[in-house]
Amino acid sequence: MQLKILKKPYMSLKWFQQKKKRNIMIGLIALAAAVVLAIGIVFGVRFINYKKACNALESGNYHYAYQMFTRLKGFMDSEDMAKLAIYRKAEADLQVQSYDTAIEAFSRLGNFRDSEERTMEAKFLKAEDLLSTERYESAYLLFQELGDYGQSK
Q1: Residue 98: exposed, middle, or buried by beta-carbon count in 10 A (0-12, 13-18, 19+)?
Q2: Per-residue CA distances from 99 to 44, 95, 115, 120 (Å)
Q3: Under a CB-based contact definition with an 8 Å cutoff, are residues 79 and 69 in contact?
Q4: CA 150: distance to chain centroid?
Q5: Contacts (Cβ under 8 Å, ≥6 apart) of 136
Q6: pTM (predicted TM-score)
Q7: What percent of the chain has pLDDT above 70?
Q8: Confidence class of residue 119 from pLDDT cuts 50, 70 and 90?
Q9: Angstrom distance (rounded) from CA 72 to CA 47
């Protein structure tokens, strides 16, 4: 009795090679999809946090906005937005006559926007406040520091 060897197409070397190539391609596609998904998630989370920080800035929650923008470290324009949070907080401090806080914040910003000019303005307003509360010596020293700024002469 002779055994008949049936050739089955799934047992051939060519079939194994094709299956191996197909499995490698599926693996590469899955890897690429995972990478794209991971990048999307990371970018998405950062974008959501950026928007939260923008909303906090617009609603006057300057400290929270500053913290959020600094955590984003270079995402979009988060560094400038962090400076803007400090700037807006300093403006708010100036409005409520918290001159020392405003002066410190504007000074910290250096040449961001018109911070140098706003520092001088805050010092001038503080000097006027000192003058109105009869603290003449402190007012005089501050007016001297301001030099030719505004009406300080």
Answers
A1: middle
A2: 40, 9, 14, 11
A3: yes
A4: 35
A5: 130
A6: 0.74
A7: 89
A8: very high
A9: 9
| 119-to-21, 84, 86 alpha-carbon distances in Å | 68, 15, 13
User: Ramachandran region of residue 127, left (φ > 0), alpha (ψ -120 to 50) or beta?
Assistant: alpha
CA-wise closest residue to 63 among 31, 101, 10, 25: 101
Tokens 């991971």 belong to 38
State the sign of the Cα–Cα–Cα–Cα dihedral 69, 71, 74, 76: negative
In this structure, of 41-45, 62-66, 75-79, 85-89, the range with the lowest mean pLDDT score is 41-45
* Tokens 């000192």, located at residue: 130
Q: Which residues of 65-85 are buried (b: 16+ CB within 10 A; e: fewer)?
A: bbebbeebeebeebeebbbbb
Q: Where are the beta strands (DSSP E) in the chain?
A: none
Query: What's the start-to-end Cα distance of the chain, in Å?
Result: 123
Cβ atoms within 10 Å of 106's Cβ, excluding its own: 27
Q: pLDDT digits over 48-67, tens only?
A: 999 999 999 999 999 999 99
Residue type, 37: L
